[in-house]
Design brief:
Shape: globular
Number of strands: 29
CATH architecture of one domain: 2-Layer Sandwich
Bound molecules: 5'-O-[(S)-butoxy(hydroxy)phosphoryl]adenosine
Radius of gyration: 24 Å
CATH superfamily of one domain: ANL, C-terminal domain
Helix content: 25-40%
């Protein structure tokens, strides 16, 4: 057992604080205790009917041909219709969909549902002019501007599947995704604002398009006004393209889609160098995200101001900034920038200005705020907040309690929500009006979700036991596969246990049946809630002309959760230096994106390998965390370890000096 697992178990056993739902909250909650009484089929039937509007009703709830599921068969619907048009038609056109706050202080926009509809219709008409139709794959590479959800919704209106690539990814990453999906159109912007500086998105997009020949048109939003080259015939300014286009919804009707039509791909890191295109389809996804958003965040559309502080470029933003909230007629905050620009109270200023009632963020952000100190939150009136959420990694009880005390005025429930890119929707979470909370536990599977913990042999462990988190039944928003790679889909999620989804996370169940998530059990790292594969970083490193071999692992970090440590062997004749170290870190940023930059690089003449040549990451991890080493007898050359240890110690000493 690793030290980390042991630590998590100790936490579980020692954590005795309990927070029952506040009475007033429970009395008005969208989800009451009896929600757990409904049967699996009953629950999802009801949600499918109540949460969504259908052009044609579904005739079959689900079909399960392991490992592929289909949901709401026979139904016809459109996501944009559900998220926008039906709300305007019902008289909610004047309701604010997004309070947008730009990063430069004072830049603000209010986008009502009626505004959203006109912008989406105009843009969808413009896309049609470029030949975008039902089925045309579209890539989107943008920052957190209102036009990002507009672009996504315009695609769904036309029935064109999209892939949104996070604006922090490199040209290589963008090109790889566009090529994998076969994208024909790319939507981007001149530049994005980040902590006061300009991120050259169009320039990166140009590099990516040079390696993605199938992209024939590129739409460019003017955001910063920075100078960017436009290629004649391929590149189009957004504002010029929509000029003269109608914003009458009848000019561009919502395409009736089948429940199982492809909605989007979201690429995520796995255990190889190539990211996986996770497939999400129309009805099950929308129903899953809308239902979880409604019950877990207890959304009262008429009163709440909801803010999910994630980036739309990740699944959290897709499900809980765009599709779930809009489907539920929420009023949301959309913030473009970082929490510390221009100062560390920016978030709290935003909460105060808009009277935010529900805030959803990641443990890594909470720990940054903890580090900065509660005085920034104290400068502002946060009394509007009534519910807090957390996602992305296991939340340590200290951060959980700090969040509740300093942000939630020691009064609000905190919902720790477990899910994945693959699951599409939250699967394990408290219901804030029902569940007694325990700091550090995601508590119970959502109604209609059957989660369990299995041991190595596929036996379900009882209360008090630990093992691997699995899902025993399909759920509506589950992935429908890995794009173009059936074998990898079966192998990654379905090969360990029969007809049972293997999540890749360790978990324990306590005596009350509450789940405690323990982190990944595969070669996937979690840095600031972002998923990065060790092998992807290794491939980026060996791509550098001076690198012979590289091994990557993570160590614990008090802010980012995990931090990346790279062990690098240089080619003969190349000398380690501080300059070389910087060069390698930059190289990884250029190949993947700044989020994948190693925190430490340790140069070593050799890497520890098993006799069969497999790099021993567990060992490297122990070294990175200064832990006593476990069994090294399978090592081809145990002396290597001592060498690496001393190098790592040197590296640490140098860092401490710096
Ligand atoms: C992995 C999925 C889904 C949104 C963001 C991340 C970890 C996520 C929790 C949580 C413990 C969590 C898991 C999971 N994770 N939420 N509440 N408690 N761990 O999505 O990039 O697909 O990563 O994040 O390890 O497998 P993702």
């Amino acid at each position: 057992m690793s030290t980390e697992t042991q630590h998590a178990i100790d936490t579980m056993l020692l954590e005795e604080r309990r927070y029952p739902p506040p009475e007033g909250f429970a009395a008005r909650a969208n989800a009451k205790a009896d929600i757990y009484d409904l049967g699996f089929e009953e629950f999802w039937e009801r949600e499918g009917r109540e949460r969504l509007s259908w052009f044609e009703p579904f005739t079959e709830l689900y079909r399960w041909d392991p490992p592929y599921a289909q949901w709401y068969l026979g139904g016809k619907l459109n996501v944009c219709f559900n998220c926008v048009d039906r709300h305007v038609a019902a008289g909610h056109g004047g309701k604010v969909a997004y309070y947008w706050e730009g990063e430069p202080v004072g830049e603000r926009r209010q986008i009502t549902y009626a505004d959203l509809q006109s912008e989406v219709v105009r843009f969808a008409n413009a896309l049609r002019k470029l030949g975008v139709r039902r089925g045309t794959p579209v890539a989107i590479y943008m920052g957190m501007v209102p036009e990002l959800p507009v672009a996504m919704l315009a695609c769904t209106r036309l029935g064109a599947p999209h892939t949104v690539v996070f604006g922090g990814f490199s040209a290589d990453s963008l090109a790889g995704r566009m090529n994998d999906m076969g994208c024909e159109v790319l939507i981007t912007q001149d530049e994005a604002w980040r902590r006061g500086s300009r991120v050259p998105l169009k320039q990166t997009a140009d590099e990516a398009m040079a390696a993605a020949p199938a992209v024939r048109d590129c739409v460019v939003l003017r955001r910063t006004g920075g100078d960017v080259p436009m290629r004649e015939g391929r590149d189009h300014w957004w504002h010029e393209l929509v000029e003269g286009e109608s914003d009458d919804p009848a000019s561009c009707p919502c395409e009736p889609m089948s429940s199982e039509d492809l909605l989007f791909l979201m690429y995520t890191s796995g255990t190889t160098a190539k990211p996986k295109g996770i497939v999400h389809t129309t009805a099950g996804y929308l129903c899953g995200v809308a239902a979880t958003h409604y019950y877990i965040f207890d959304l009262k559309p008429e009163e709440d101001v909801y803010w999910c502080a994630a980036d739309i470029g990740w699944i959290t933003g897709h499900s809980y900034i765009v599709y779930g909230p809009l489907c539920n007629l929420a009023t949301s905050v959309l913030y473009e920038g970082t929490p510390d620009y221009p100062d560390k109270d920016r978030w709290w200023e935003i909460v105060e200005r808009y009277g935010v009632t529900i805030l959803y963020t990641a443990p890594t952000a909470i720990r940054s705020h903890m580090k900065w100190g509660p005085e920034y939150a104290r400068r502002h009136d946060l009394s509007s907040l009534r519910l807090l959420g957390s996602v992305g990694e296991p939340i340590n009880p200290e951060a959980w309690v700090w969040y509740r005390e300093h942000i939630g005025s020691d009064r609000t429930p905190v919902v720790d929500t477990w899910w994945q890119t693959e699951t599409g929707m939250i699967l394990i979470s408290p219901l804030p009006g029902v569940t007694t909370l325990k700091p550090g536990s995601a508590t119970k599977p959502f109604p209609g979700v059957e989660a369990a913990v299995y041991d190595e042999h596929g036996n379900e462990v009882g209360p008090g036991g630990g093992g691997y988190l699995v899902l025993k039944r399909p759920w509506p928003a589950m992935l429908r596969g890995i794009f173009g790679d059936d074998e990898r889909y079966r192998d990654t999620y379905w090969s360990r246990y029969e007809n049972t989804y293997f999540a890749g996370d360790g978990a324990r169940i306590d005596r009350d049946g509450d789940f405690w998530l323990l982190g990944r059990v595969d070669d996937v790292m979690n840095v600031s809630g972002h998923r990065i594969s060790t092998i992807e970083v290794e491939s980026a490193l060996v791509d550098h002309p001076d690198v012979a071999e590289a091994a990557v692992c993570s160590r614990k970090d008090s802010t980012t959760g995990e931090a990346i440590v790279a062990y690098v062997t240089l080619k003969a004749g190349r000398e380690p230096s501080v300059k070389k170290l910087q060069e390698l870190r930059d190289h990884v940023a250029r190949k993947i994106g700044p989020i994948a930059k190693p925190a430490n690089v340790v140069f070593t003449p050799e890497l520890p390998k098993t006799r069969s040549g497999k790099i021993m990451r567990r060992l490297l991890r122990d070294i990175a965390e200064n832990r006593p080493l476990g069994d090294t007898t399978t090592l081809a050359d145990p002396a290597v370890v001592a060498e690496i240890q001393s190098r790592a110690a040197e590296e640490k000493a140098q860092e401490a000096e710096a």
